[in-house]
Design a protein that fits this description.
By secondary structure, the chain is of the alpha/beta class. The protein has 6 helices and 9 strands; from the N terminus they run ααββαβαβαββαβββ. The structure holds S-adenosyl-L-homocysteine (SAH). S-adenosyl-L-homocysteine binds next to strand 2, helix 4 and strand 4.
Length: 206
């Protein structure tokens, strides 16, 4: 089933072999309740509780491809959710710092991620702040729809760093890649429409 999913992703235009091999290495069915086993390798998003979703595999693959991650890079993820995206980054050799604002989800995913050998640190906080104590980062990926570009995150990018985010409010957002050059100038590229759950403010206790 996992091999078939990889074929589907290739047919939808994913070319980066490192991304495809990471998705092939990760048992996505571990991330879903066992009663939904047959859905685990379909190219569809899926509810994971607390009103949140594990993104569609194509979206994870495309975002990861656009992020251009290399081994040993420091990568900040906003929106831990199920932890699947963090595992993909971890499998590619990144040092992952991932932030989740919902306490229950944070606690559950933090415990679950112990099943994997990856370098992933989890944090319970509002990702709009970034993680100043661990900055700067080579890469920052937001996996919730941001109504505006969080300036804190731009500041926490290294020169040469990349921030990737679904930007916009409403049902549909634009996948935007912002690259900071050595002088600190920003270049913005747009990669089309996606649908994410909203990036909210502040931590949530439930
Ligand atoms: N990357 C996840 C998918 C995340 S869904 C995965 O691979 O499964 C988006 C997640 O972003 C949700 O869990 C939501 O609670 C979280 N989120 C929304 N706003 C946030 C914020 N300001 N800071 C941190 N996490 C946030």
């Amino acid at each position: 089933m996992r091999k078939q999913l990889i074929k589907t992703l290739e047919s939808k235009g994913i070319k980066d072999k490192k991304v495809l091999s990471a998705i092939e290495n990760i048992p996505r069915h571990w991330f879903l309740d066992s009663s939904f086993l047959e859905y685990a390798y379909e190219d569809k998003p899926f509810p994971i509780g607390s009103g949140q979703t594990i993104s569609q595999p194509y979206t994870v693959a495309r975002q990861t491809e656009l992020l251009m991650v290399e081994k040993n890079m420091k990568v900040l993820e906003i929106g831990t959710g199920s932890g699947f995206q963090a595992c993909v980054l971890g499998d590619m050799g990144a040092k992952v710092y991932t932030v989740e604002r919902q306490k229950k989800l944070y606690l559950r995913t933090k415990a679950f991620l112990k099943n994997f050998p990856y370098r992933i640190k989890t944090f319970y906080d509002d990702g709009n702040k970034g993680l100043p104590a661990f900055a700067p980062f080579d890469r920052i990926i937001i996996t919730a729809a941001a109504p505006e570009i969080p300036q804190n995150l731009i500041e926490q990018l290294k020169p040469g760093g990349i921030l990737l985010l679904p930007l916009g409010f409403g049902d549909v957002q634009q996948m935007v890649r912002i690259t900071k050059d050595a002088e600190g100038n920003l270049k913005t590229e747009n990669f089309g429409n996606y649908r994410f759950v909203p990036m909210l403010k502040n931590r949530a206790d439930d």
